[in-house]
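Each lists sequence, tokenised fold; shown next:
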Amino acid sequence: KNIKAGRTPVVSHLIGNQCDGCNMGLASLMIQRVKDGKRIVECENCGRILFDQESVSS
């Protein structure tokens, strides 16, 4: 969706319980799905694909 609209960046990481792209808080279920890393999760507010920086670093 963001790619088609020409919006960048299309990927954002979590800061605490918030999307770094739009600074909106995420539900605990969404946070768990992002941290789990088994599926692609989009921010419900801005549509960016979310990832957990800590999971990527380890």
Summary: The first strand starts at residue 11 and ends at 15. The two ends are 29 Å apart (CA to CA). The chain has a mean pLDDT of 86.
